[in-house]
Amino acid sequence: MKSAEDAGRWDSSLDAVVVYARGALCTRLARGTVPADGRVRVTGFPRSMDPGSLRAKVVGDDGVRVTEVRVEVDAEPPAGERTDTPRQELEQARDAAAAARGRRDRQLGLIAEVAALRPVPPAADPGEPPRRTPVDAWLRLAGFADERLRALHLRLTELEERLRVAEHEFAVATDRWNRASTGARSGRVEAAVAAVLALDGAESGGGAVELELEYGVPGAVWVPAYRLTYRQEAAEGTLVLRASVAQRTGEDWSGVRLALATADLRRRTDLPRLRSVRVGRRQSAPAPTGWREPPAGLADLFTGYDAAGPRPAPALPVAPAAPGPVPPPPAPSPGGAHGLDRVRDAAARARLLAVPRRFHRRRDRGALLRGRSPALLRRRAAGGQAVGTARWRG
Q: Which value, in Å, is the radius of gyration of the alpha carbons in the chain?
């Protein structure tokens, strides 16, 4: 009779494998009866499986569906490994010796019962003569007792030998237990991967349900090999494709249906987004407008200009030039290059005369006026050109 835990624990078998360019997609089948709580634990998965690739579905249309599936990893001792500790060996040897001793004692009891068989003469009534002793019956009883005791003693010899061996093993286990260290190394454990599923729609006590579980494993590749067979002077040939499959997933693929694919299992393949198509009369493409996006960072070109603020107004007003005929160019001054002939227009002369007072120093006069003499400026103004009213302080 299975317990509740064993009823919800299903074993699975590998059914099919699709090998891709890198990795493989495996399919397992599990079958069993759904417990009352609807939770099933399917075992048999390799440790190399990708937990995010697990998919599960119910085979057939019986109203049962999978509502939850997740991967759980447990620790369990490896299959076929001896996990007996010295204490367990001691207990087993003690039980074996006690059982052998009990069988020997029961055999001794049987021998004592048979050996206690004695012929008893019948009692004579008072006043009657003694009865005849049944010698033949006594002899048959003695023969039966001897034969029975001979068989019982043979069995007793065998049981005593088994008891001696059991007591020796018990003594050896006791000595090993006494010599064993209290800090014994724990046994090696392995990780067991299982899938926990929640099923909905299963009736209590219903029939068996079959599940199909699909998952991916990374350690599998396949390499194609081609062979072309043809005859000389023949127009046709035979091309044979042979695939060599290599896998290190921890599973046995013997007798499993294999399929091959050239796609990459790790590559994301989303569906393409198709452009909308307008159904109607064909129209010519619109002419380009010539406008294009401004270059990046164009607004940063004017940050320095905006941060400087408005230009300060001149300290002295400048009179506008009087309309009239254009005067002839002045004669060259004796000063050469430092004369008034370097002043090009009235606006330049006005800017020179509008210099604030704090810059009117002897050491800056040459740099500001560039060698222009006040006398030449006054003579130029008398000729009809308007200049500022600032005074020169030498």
A: 58
User: Which token pair is 110?
Assistant: 């049987």
CB-based burial of residue 85 (10 Å sphere; 0-12 exposed, 13-18 middle, 19+ buried)?
Answer: middle
Which residues have C-beta within 8 Å of that of residue 380, sequence separation ≥ 6?
Answer: 330, 340, 343, 349, 387
Range name among 31-45, 223-237, 266-280, 337-351 with the lowest pLDDT average: 337-351
Is 278 part of a structural domain of the chain? no
**One domain for residues 252 and 330:** no
How long a stretch of residues is the chain? 394
pTM, rounded to two decimals: 0.44
Where is pLDDT greater, at 51 or 358?
51
Could you tell me the two tokens for 57? 């579905």
Report yes or no: 354 and 390 within 8 Å, Cβ to Cβ. Answer: yes
Cα–Cα distance for residue pair 272/233, rounded to 1 Å? 48
- Residue 368: is its pLDDT beyond 60? no
Instruction: Provide the angle, in degrees to the nearest 10, between the axes of the packed helices 135-179 and 86-115.
Output: 170
Q: Residue 145: which of 119, 107, 122 has the closest Cα?
A: 119
> Does residue 104 sit in the same domain as residue 169?
yes
Structural domain count, the chain:
3
Q: Are residues 142 and 174 in the same domain?
A: yes
Query: Does 245 share its domain with 220?
Result: yes
